[in-house]
Amino acid sequence: MLRSLQGRLAAALVAGLAVLSLAATAASFYVLRREVDRMSDSALQETAQRLLPLAIMDIVGRDADDDEDSSRRIAAVRPHDELLTYAVRDDKGRLLLRSHDATLAIFPPGLKAGFTSTPSHRIYAEPGLQGTISLMIAEPLATRRHAVMEAALAVAKVLILFLPVGLCGIWLIVRTGLRPIRRFCGSIAARGQNDLTPLAKKELPTEIAPIADAVNDLMARLDRALAAERSFTANSAHELRTPIAAALALTQRLMDEMPSAAMRERVQNVERSLHTLSRVSERLMQLAKAENGRVLGDAPQDLRPVLELVIEDFRRVASANSIQLDLPDQPVPSWIDQDAFAIVVRNLVENAQKHGSHGQPVEISLLATGSLTVRNHGPVLPHDQLKRLTKPFERGVTAAKGSGLGLAIVEAIVRGAGSSLELRSPVPGWQDGLQVSIDDLLSAPAMQKRA
What we know:
Layout: H1 5-60, E1 72-73, E2 85-90, E3 95-98, E4 114-117, E5 121-128, E6 133-140, H2 141-177, H3 179-189, H4 209-257, H5 261-291, E7 296-302, H6 304-316, E8 323-326, E9 333-336, H7 338-355, E10 362-366, E11 372-376, H8 383-388, H9 406-416, E12 420-424, E13 434-439, H10 446-450
Helix pairs in contact: 1-2, 4-5, 5-9, 6-7, 7-9
GO molecular function, one term: protein histidine kinase activity
Keywords: ATP-binding, Kinase, Membrane, Nucleotide-binding, Phosphoprotein, Signal, Transferase, Transmembrane, Transmembrane helix, Two-component regulatory system
Pfam families: HATPase_c, HisKA
């Protein structure tokens, strides 16, 4: 079953062309047969009327002693096959004259003036000398059928030659007519994933314009819904920062005023909870920024300085051997925003340190091809769990504390930059661990940048 609109239209038009061609052939055959019969009858009548005076002169000028049975066959000038044969009879039915190939069986007795058809011939009789003689001329019907078939085959050949040209013409017409629709679909496919601006429809056919209106209306509603969701997330996280900071300050002051160690420990638990809430609000703001799609800069920037700066921050609070960094010698330019890239690296390293094996270093490598890889030792994660880790608030089986937003933020930024994120466990070549790879950081398309 054809699912393509172009295929269905082309098939319908081809079928219609084929039916019309067959109908034209049949109509041509019918018209040609009638015209051949009309022209042949006219030729018979004209030939008979021209031969009759000659036959009368020959009969009248004949001597009485020439032929006792009063009939004579006209000798041929040279041997040939006669298409038309004729004979002359008197009013008593006696044969007076005939052509050299004439057969008497062709001309039945008692023929009346005008046209007569037998199973094998078309005969025309023309009387003369006040009806005392009659000239009969006959033409084989097979000759007429042959002429009709030749003419019909000539028409059929023209139609057969025309049919491929018609098929190509139909295909080109359909393809040209559907070109605005293909351009419309291409403009949708070429858009960045965060571009929800209205689609242009000025070149669309009238029948397709309502579809464009419906798509634009749908995108407008989707844009409003996403904007409301992102605004709620960002505003909520932003509004939480001030009261959380105030609560932390009050908690720290309260802890200094506690008279006993037990009460100070309780206040410390409250402080840790507030720190966790602060980190969650910060991650929510990062996630809102990532999902907003504005993760590309105005020009390509080298990723190496950003990566070195983030890793240096981690090394200030941890052992220098806990992170192994491998950078290329040449610059690694990318369209991704430097702040967004820093958020990606920071979340990946924090995730690797929290959930990796203690005492084992985190390995980070940036290739000149624009691929970033972060590896850490740790338990092997099943495939179905790896697929869920990039969703918000999803965490693996671990005792480490966290919000479950780190990889979701990374995935949102990577997707917004036009790159791809891949999680593998165990690390290729290792027996354990998790590897997070980001590819195509160099090829963020300008189209997506505009989005």
